[in-house]
Amino acid sequence: MKTLYKILGLTIIDFGLIWLWVYRMDPDPSVSIEIILLVPFVFVLNLIIAGVLLFAKKKEYSSVFLVNSVLSSIIMFYLFGRGIDRHQNKQLEEWTFQKADTTFSLIRLKETNEFSLTYSLNPGSSCGFLDGHYENENGNWILKADSMTMKISKDNLIGFRNPTDTIRMKKIER
């Protein structure tokens, strides 16, 4: 039972340290490949600590770090993925909607006050066709491009093809 409490305590410490590191790092999707290095690093680091403790004749602590090598790797994988999602949520907001056989995606970039509208006829491919700037007006987003003005109000896109069109959009949550 003591060993279980030690594993639980070490897991809580790992969670806190990894969360703090990922939070401060604020990873964006361009560094997602780092997960290939980070998970094995955490695993091997715990194995090395377990080996050192075994060599120092601390067998009970060695077994705790052996179990922790797997748990900390899982925690690293999970928290790094959530860190990327958090970064994305700070940077952009995205909605999708369907018209006939076409899927449209509207992305609002939070830091630059820009938006882009893309369409896709096939899954996995998309084509951008409208870019512009937006401004907040009484809780609604007014989207302005060279050729048109639209409005986002409560996940509804107003004025997409003509000024009276109202399209219900699905907000993409990360």
Which keywords apply here?
174 residues; alpha+beta; nine-stranded antiparallel sheet
Describe the structure.
With 174 residues, the protein is of the alpha+beta class. The protein has three helices and nine strands, in the order αααβββββββββ. A nine-stranded antiparallel sheet has the order 8-7-6-5-4-3-2-1-9. A hairpin with a 4-residue loop joins β2 (102-109) and β3 (114-120). The relative contact order is 0.11. The mean pLDDT is 92.
The side-by-side strand order for the widest beta sheet comes to 8-7-6-5-4-3-2-1-9
User: What is the beta-strand fraction?
Assistant: 25-35%
Helical fraction: 40-55%
Order of helices and strands: HHHEEEEEEEEE
Give me a quick take on this structure.
The protein is α+β, with helices and mostly antiparallel strands. The chain has helices at residues 2-25, 35-55, 59-91; strands spanning 92-99, 102-109, 114-120, 127-137, 140-144, 149-153, 156-158, 166-168, 170-172.
Write the layout of secondary structure elements.
Elements lengths: L1 H24 L9 H21 L3 H33 E8 L2 E8 L4 E7 L6 E11 L2 E5 L4 E5 L2 E3 L7 E3 L1 E3 L2
Antiparallel strand pairs: 1-2, 1-9, 2-3, 3-4, 4-5, 5-6, 6-7, 7-8
